[in-house]
Each structure stands twice: as C-alpha cells, then as structure tokens.
Amino acid sequence: MRDVLAADATGVIRGRWDVPPLFRPPTPPRHFVGRDAELRAIRAGITVLTGAAGVGKTALALKWLRERGSGVQLYVDLAAHGIGRVLRAFGLNVAPDDESAVFRSLVARRQFTLLLDNASSAAQVRPLLPPSGTVLVTSRTRLGIGHVTDVGPLPDDGRLWPLLDLSYGELPERQARLYRLCAWQPGVFGVPEAASVAEEPACEVEDALDDLVEKSLLTEVGDDAFRFHDLVRAHARTKR
Ligand SMILES: Nc1ncnc2c1ncn2[C@@H]1O[C@H](COP(=O)(O)OP(=O)(O)OP(=O)(O)O)[C@@H](O)[C@H]1O
Ligand SMILES: [Mg+2]
Question: What is the pTM of this model?
C-alpha cells in the first residue's frame, strides 16, 4: 500500500502534468449530425454508450466531450492500450498490482473527464473508475454499470447527405474510387478484398483506406478490418 501511495504522490507531484498526445481525445467527425437527445442525456457520473459495431458510439462520445465536456480530458482506447501504458506515458512506472489504484487516483486528483473507448467487459472497466467525476464508456455489449445510453442507428433525416457530398468532393481520385467500389462489399472487409475490387496493389489501397478512415468516411473495426456506416454506404453507392 505504501508503494501505491508513493506512486500516487509521484503521479500528482512529479508525474507529467499535460495529457500525453496519445491519450487526448481525437476530434469528432467533421460532418457529425443528429444525436441531439443523446447529447442532452449524458451527464456527470458514469455513462455507458452501448450499441452495435459502427453505429456511432465513439463519435457521440467525442462530440459530447468537445461540446459539453469540461476540464482536462483523458481518452483511453481500451482495445489498444492497457492502463500500464497510460501510466508510463504520464511518467509513472507502477507494479501491475498497483496500476488500477494509481490510475484511479491520477484521474480523481487531476479531475480528468475520462473516456474509456471500446470496453469489452465490466471487469475491464470497474478497476478504472474514479470515486467521483465524469466518465464516458463505449461498449458493444451491455456492461451493467453506470447510466446506460443506447446508441441506435442514425435516422436518415437528410442532414448527413450534403456533408458527405462535401467530404466526397474533396477526395483525391484513388480514394473516391475506393469509396465507390468498396461500398458494394457486404459488411466488414479487409485490405485484400478492397485491393481485389480496385485491382490495385494492397499497400496503396491500405494507405487510401486509412485516409478514408481519417476523413470519417469509413470505420476501422479491427486490425485492417473496415466497414461503412450504413448511411455512408448508401451515400457511396449513389456515386458513379
Ligand atoms: N452522428 C454522426 N454523424 C456523422 N458521422 C457519424 C456519426 N456517428 C458516427 N459517424 C461516423 O460513422 C462511423 C462509425 O462511427 P463510430 O466509430 O463512432 O462507431 P462506433 O459505434 O464507435 O463503432 P465501434 O463499435 O466499432 O467502436 C465513423 O466514420 C463516424 O465518423
Ligand atoms: Mg467506437
């Protein structure tokens, strides 16, 4: 316990003060639309955004943080980073047994608003929850903790379309062509499938797919696995 407190004190007094770039929230999609009710429903405390893959949980959480969140914000993609990695980025080397205690006290003492993205289970999240403050969690499964906000498919109220047109109009031809062709892939696809429909080398296709993800036109749902948001796919299929 003394070690925890020592590391805790180090975290507060000597650990890095600014949030390391890897753990700052990325910007929400440029063409974010809708979700007015969900944005209003999120409050201080623990909120779990639950919904199917690619439905828009992360986008909603990032939008809320940007527009309604306060204080210093810490973003952890739990699918990509363990908590030890986060602590090391803050300059804290902590024994594995002490990681969750030190993480919780780091968050609480510095009053971070926390986004835990891509949680897979309640057991993964519980040890990371600070005693107070605001925590957003996204998960494809119901975790049975916090205040649950269900995130359903975006209604097609016509607001997204013009914004997609704008983004599409700015694409270089290779990306625009991939956007059109890949929209005919059913569900999740990888680089080999995209390379095959485009009849282009995989390495170039991979770069172009990454650019589409960067522009929020495509969703990366795993290691080199991609899928379109339903509305985006419908948009892409209208393009020739
Ligand atoms: N409200 C929105 N307006 C515009 N684009 C959106 C909106 N919500 C989601 N998107 C876009 O849809 C795609 C998927 O959204 P997002 O990554 O948030 O899904 P997710 O539910 O977090 O998926 P996963 O379960 O894979 O983490 C992204 O390209 C995102 O930019
Ligand atoms: Mg997500």
Answer: 0.81
